[in-house]
Amino acid sequence: SLVILRHCLRVVVNNGHNMEDVVVLDNAAAHSRCEELMTEQEFLNFHICRLAPYCYMLNPIECI
């Protein structure tokens, strides 16, 4: 997953996005090491926003 995220972020950077960008991730095990990717020089302007854990009981459509 780290390799895929690195590739995706490089595409964003190469397309001219110089502003601070946010990467939204869930709490999947595959995303557990993504913070270390943000310490690389080319990705310092990116920030990770993690989603809260999912609770099916709080989603009304799940209770049907």
General description of the model:
With 64 residues, the chain is of the alpha+beta class. The chain has helices spanning 2-14, 34-37, and strands at 21-25, 46-50. It has a two-stranded parallel ribbon with strand order 1-2. Helix 2 (34-37) links the parallel strand 1 and strand 2. The mean pLDDT is 82.
Q: How does the SSE layout of this entry go?
A:
Elements: H1 2-14, E1 21-25, H2 34-37, E2 46-50
Parallel strand pairs: 1-2
Counted beta strands: 2
Helix content: 25-40%
As residue ranges, the low-confidence spans are none
Shape: elongated
Major β-sheet strand ordering: 1-2
| Tally of helical runs | 2
**Overall pLDDT level:** 82
Major β-sheet annotation? 2 strands, parallel
| Estimated share of beta-strand residues | 15-25%
- Alpha-carbon distance between the two ends: 34 Å
Radius of gyration: 15 Å
- The secondary-structure element order is HEHE
In brief, what are we looking at here?
The chain has 64 residues and is α+β, with helices and mostly antiparallel strands.
Tags for this entry?
alpha+beta; 64 residues
